[in-house]
Amino acid sequence: MKYFLLFLLLFACISLHGEAGINLPVDTPVQARLITTLPFHQFVDGVLLVRACIARDGDTTLTKDTLNFILDTGSGGISLDSTTAAALHLPLSPSDVVIHGIGGSRTVPFVYNMSLLLPNLRVDHLSFHVNNYEMISALYGIHIDGIIGYSFLSQYIVRVDYDQQKIWVYAPGEFHYPEKGFLLKPLFAGIPIIHETLSNNRQQVKSFFFSIQEPASVCC
Question: Fewer CB within 10 Å, N side or C side of the chain?
Fold first, then answer.
């Protein structure tokens, strides 16, 4: 019996030692990889303008035309101006999709199977909805060809440096944020939604769309 107990204890010690000595593989987080950098122009009210090209998937016939795009986290997709789409002879497909804006709500057509071309980065399989941006172009004194929103931003980590007026685009992965500042954790429903508490006569929890296109203000 003593030998049996001794054997069990010895076996347990060997097992524990063996388990401790095994180097099990540890999942190493994939670091975010820098893909490209690009400059932007900032208008007086904070709106960001970037230059990019478009093409049909698997083609480069439209890349000679560099277009003006507004970068906006408040856009639930990606879009083209109707006059730009007409000038490039892009085929429009009707849809039942309704977009909502300051000017009201309307159904919009789409241009499917398109690519967005940035320096050292091509984003394929995009569906551009087409809208009239004549009013926006008149406001900024430059033709606005489209708006880049969630369809692009949801695929990458995008870092915006307002001091250097430069944008860094990273492949998804572990990303180290600067130590200073505030970390927001929005909900995503095409547009980032942030829940914050407002203090006036009484505290109220409100939901806000987070849009870098809008001037620095809060609307309830």
Answer: N
Residues 33-175: name the CATH superfamily. Answer: Acid Proteases (2.40.70.10)
Q: How many angstroms separate the CA atoms of 80 and 82, rounded?
A: 6
For 73, the token pair is 């986290």
Asked if residues 72 and 87 have their Cβ atoms less than 8 Å apart, the reply is: no
Domain residues of the chain, as ranges? Answer: 33-175
pLDDT digits (tens, 9 = 90+) for 141-181: 999 999 999 999 999 999 999 999 999 999 999 988 877 77
pTM of the predicted model as reported, rounded to 2 decimal places: 0.75
Q: What values do phi and psi take at 103, rounded to 5?
A: -80, 0
Pairing of strands 67-71, 146-148: parallel
